[in-house]
Design brief:
single chain, alpha/beta, Rossmann fold, 8-stranded mixed sheet, two-stranded parallel ribbon, globular
Length: about 350
């Protein structure tokens, strides 16, 4: 099912040498390109309000990422490449469209893609906006601001993190709020941030249901571990790709990369999806007994995601880069949706400064 677009947004099916997918466009064809990368459980649809609000000289380009939205369902995410599949898909798209350089914007999983592009393709970037990004160390399985693994096998990250109730809800197309872990409830509690409910919630829920399910998609595969919570990352799907197991020397690559572009880090001050005590982090819910045997906070602390982001950006600045930090008060994980005026004021000003 194709999700209708807002007025001012056009959808095209684009085939590159890597991926056939739906790509949304807005703004003048000869405008300055701004590439938007969406997060997990979502699609390009999530960026439409932000796209149409851009100043008129900018051209928005927003693809459905591999494994999500209306991308080719036959193509999988090889988690052993980390964010590599997403990065290569994005660069192939911009090559196909004829853009040598562009502004980059990423939310959540899309923020992880942006970190990797800062490391591996900085010459293509005019600027980077990290809009509620994931930690550069990925999700789960690390315990300090420098990304030290909690366990050698990275237990507590990857496909084993998926909530079974949420997964069943995705399988069944559950649109109710009967469970706090239903797809709609998860969006309202972890993403939108109460009391905000977007006008196009049904479209965003439709996008969530487009995610590929199974051992090569969501939740992905996993391997058993002797370490709590007794599952370590597998090799397929977005959750495994987000594991710190596959980060490699990303931070070193970010710090060594040239040129160093300007970065806007903008996030919701009340974000519970990416924080130092994220709701989905095993270190947060471990004490509830959901999976017995939690070893305690001393052995398995919460992942300090915000500290990891800030430490990386501070080190980036020390190596010649620069960043601006903006916390949007009262906002959850998607300030560009819940607080568009505040978000766009900072975002548009930042884009204009780079010209």
């Amino acid at each position: 099912m194709s999700i209708p677009t807002l007025t001012g947004v056009t959808a095209q099916t684009v085939t590159t040498d890597r991926l056939t997918t739906r790509v949304l466009f807005s703004g003048p064809a000869d405008g300055i390109p701004v590439l938007f990368i969406h997060g997990n459980f979502s699609s390009a649809t999530w960026w439409e309000e932000t796209m149409v609000a851009l100043p008129p000289k900018f051209r928005a380009i927003t693809p459905d990422q591999r494994g999500l939205g209306e991308s080719d369902p036959a193509l999988k995410i090889n988690a052993e490449h980390g964010m590599g599949d997403f990065v290569d898909d994005a660069i192939a798209l911009m090559d196909h469209l004829g853009y040598d350089r562009f502004h980059l914007v990423g939310n959540s999983l899309g923020g992880l893609v942006a970190w990797w592009m800062m490391a591996d393709t900085p010459e293509r970037l005019i600027s980077v906006t990290l809009a509620g990004p994931g930690s550069p160390f990925g999700f789960g399985g690390t315990k300090d601001a420098h990304g030290t693994p909690t366990y050698d096998d990275y237990a507590g990250s990857g496909g084993g993190l998926a909530n079974p109730v949420l997964y069943q809800g995705l399988l069944e197309g559950d649109r109710s709020t009967d469970s706090p872990f239903s797809p709609r409830s998860a969006l309202r509690l972890l993403v939108w941030g109460p009391p905000f409910v977007p006008d196009r919630e049904e479209a965003f829920l439709d996008a969530m249901f487009q995610i590929r399910l199974g051992e090569t998609g969501m939740p992905g595969d996993k391997v058993s571990s002797p370490n709590w919570p007794y599952a370590a990352p597998g090799k397929w799907g977005p959750l495994n790709a987000m594991s710190p197991k596959y980060i490699g020397n990303l931070i070193d690559r970010i710090l060594a990369a040239e040129p160093k572009v300007q970065v806007l880090w903008i996030y919701g001050a009340d974000d519970v999806a990416v924080s130092n005590s994220a709701a989905s982090d095993p270190g947060t819910w471990g004490p509830t007994g959901r999976i017995p045997g939690y070893p305690g906070r001393e052995e398995y602390p919460q992942q300090p995601m915000m500290d990891q982001i800030r430490t990386t950006l501070d080190d980036y600045s020390k190596r010649g880069g620069a960043y601006e930090e903006v916390a949007v008060e009262g906002s959850g994980h998607v300030p560009f949706m819940s607080h568009p005026d505040e978000f766009n004021r900072a975002f548009h000003g930042f884009l204009e400064e780079q010209e």
